[in-house]
Amino acid sequence: MRIGLYPGTFDPVTLGHVDIIRRACSLVDKLVIGVAINRDKGPLFNLEERVAMIEAECAVLSGETGCEIVAHPFENLLIDCAKDVGAGIIIRGLRAVADFEYEYQMVGMNRQLNNSIETVFLMAEAQHQAIASKLVKEIARLGGDVSKFVTPSVERALKERLK
């Protein structure tokens, strides 16, 4: 069984994330969505809320793709999380050249820590390349329309949180 790990904070999950998840499902039999516990980032949504959003968004995708998708909170090193869940592949989404520079360094470090786990980069589809959770939160905070960037349920959660 090919197991992949797609890590992130998913604060909140965006259409860009959903696109990468859908496409990653064609590469693996089981996709673990690693929901990072990153206390330094000060997320808008707590861990339980982010996991619930991922589970809700992925329930339909799992049925459509035939790929088992599970959410897995983690706070340890990414490479250790991959080992913990049995992943042989780490999936990383790329939006721009700046993403690649950071990811390139991460791959090098991860290969030094465990060279049996591969990293696969998926480019975001063109319509999703500008989407970043940080920008979505800022647009929502300022009363802008985020419907082009998130699903309706995530949009509702943002509006509720930012009342």
Structure at a glance:
Helices cover 45% and strands 20% of the residues. The protein is α/β, with parallel strands linked by helices.
Write the layout of secondary structure elements.
Layout: E1 3-8, H1 15-24, E2 30-36, H2 47-65, E3 68-74, H3 78-85, E4 89-94, H4 97-113, E5 118-123, H5 133-141, H6 152-161
Parallel strand pairs: 1-2, 1-4, 2-3, 4-5
Structure description:
It is a single chain. This protein is an alpha/beta fold. The chain has one domain: HUPs (Rossmann fold), CATH 3.40.50. The chain contains 6 helices and 5 strands, in the order E-H-E-H-E-H-E-H-E-H-H. The chain has a 5-stranded parallel sheet, with helices on both faces. The N and C termini lie far apart (44 Å). The relative contact order is 0.21.
